[in-house]
Specification:
Blueprint (H helix, E strand, L loop, with lengths): L1 H7 L23 H20 L4 E3 L5 H6 L7 H8 L6 E5 L4 E4 L9 H4 L2 H17 L6 E5 L14 H16 L4 E6 L1 H9 L5 E4 L2 H12 L4 E5 L4 E5 L17 H15 L2
Helix pairs in contact: 1-10, 6-7, 8-9
């Protein structure tokens, strides 16, 4: 799929380097050896970003379960690249044609979210998202911060995270990032529809699936995943490995990977 994407981008004025090698293995059947090779290539890409050998990296999906079996100590590639590039303030951001979201918590169990969500996360993610949107050509971005609970907690009946955590963080964002327009806490079952229709430029989400379900429903084939806060860009398609399609000619859709390359070029050209 990456090779197809590279051929599709032949007419774009940029130098592409493909970090990878073909193994003698059965497509769609990960092994410890394929995991070790995948990790080797992630390390090479991170090193190239760190030294400035490359300006951005487009990563392919990896099998996190298999990587973790050989000692990969991160929930995903977002945290890996942040660690390797020495970045303590970072965020996962996904963007499609109709919706852009940034996540305060990522790959954790849903039951853990209320206990780890805090105002510092909301402020950091909101700030990184505003800076990213400004870099991409929106000098005064409109950003909604979604509530955690149904109906924003219904005045405390379903939870108090909105009044205790999110509302103070939104106020702090308005003070510390005055050139952006922050709204919230916004009712989560409405805010993504509002953003997709143009009322907001992006949404800060308290947890993974609240944001990614509407994003992938609206633009599964065109959305991309970006790691905000890194000194150089890392971007990837928004989907997983799709092992069930491996080796089946003409089945995999490369659109998200192609959009990832185009997003990287757009980001670099916006500097």
């Amino acid at each position: 799929m990456v090779e197809l994407a590279l051929r599709t981008l032949d007419d774009i004025p940029a130098n592409f380097v493909c970090m990878g090698k073909r193994l003698d293995c059965r497509p769609g059947s990960p092994t410890p050896e394929t995991a070790r090779v995948a990790l080797e290539h992630l390390e090479r890409a991170a090193q190239a970003l760190r030294t400035g050998e490359i300006d951005a990296v487009v990563t392919a999906p990896v099998c996190k379960e298999n990587l973790q079996r050989i000692g990969f100590a991160f929930p995903g590639q977002t945290e890996f690249f942040a660690d390797r590039l020495g970045c303590s303030s970072f965020a996962m951001c996904l963007s499609g044609e109709k919706l852009t979201v940034a996540l305060c918590t990522t790959h954790v169990a849903l039951r853990e979210v209320p206990g780890i969500l805090n105002g510092t996360q909301v402020v950091n993610v909101g700030t990184l998202l505003a800076q990213h949107l400004k870099h991409m050509g929106l000098p005064h971005p409109r950003i909604a911060v979604a509530g955690l609970n149904p109906h924003n907690g219904e005045a405390g009946a379903f939870g108090d995270e909105e009044s205790r955590i999110i509302a103070p963080a939104v106020q702090q964002l308005r003070t510390s990032v005055p050139w952006a327009d922050f709204s919230g806490p916004c009712v989560p079952d409405v805010v993504y529809r509002d953003a997709s229709m143009g009322r907001y430029d992006a949404v800060v989400a308290p947890y993974h699936d609240q944001a990614l379900i509407p994003l992938k429903l609206l633009d599964f084939n065109g959305a991309v995943n970006m790691t905000l806060g890194l000194p150089r860009l890392r971007v990837s398609p928004d989907h997983g490995t799709a092992f069930s399609l491996a080796g089946k000619r003409g089945m995999a859709n490369p659109s998200s990977t192609i959009h990832a390359f185009r997003t990287a070029l757009h980001y670099l050209n916006a500097k």
